[in-house]
Amino acid sequence: MPLLVCIAVHDQESPQELTRQLAVRAPHGRLKRYPGTHFSFYHDEQTRQTALADQIAFYRTVLHAQPR
User: Fold this and answer.
1) Which residue(s) pair with 3 in the sheet?
2) 38-55 as b/e: b if 16+ CB within 10 A
3) What is the pLDDT along the chain (68 residues), one digit of tens a residue?
4) Which residue intervals of the chain are DSSP H helices?
5) Degrees (nearest 5) of the Cα angle 14, 15, 16?
6) Angle, CA of 19, 34 and 41, to the nearest 5°
7) d(CA 54, CA 65)
C-alpha cells in the first residue's frame, strides 16, 4: 500500500524519528518535510497549500488519475 507521510521540520508534537522510520519501512512509503511546526499546516497558508498540492499529486500518481 502506498504511504505518504507529511511532517513539519520543527514538529514537536509528532516524534520525527518514528515518523521517518514509518515512511522508510513502508514498501512504497514517501516522506515529505515542510518548513514550520506541527500547526503550520493549519495556520500557514503557504505550508498548507504546498502540502495539499503534494498530497493531490501523490494520490494522482498512486491512482493513475489525470487532473480534470
Assistant:
1) 29
2) eebbeebeebeebbeeee
3) 899 999 999 999 988 899 999 999 999 999 999 999 999 999 999 999 999 999 999 999 998 877 66
4) 16-25, 40-43, 45-63
5) 105
6) 90
7) 14
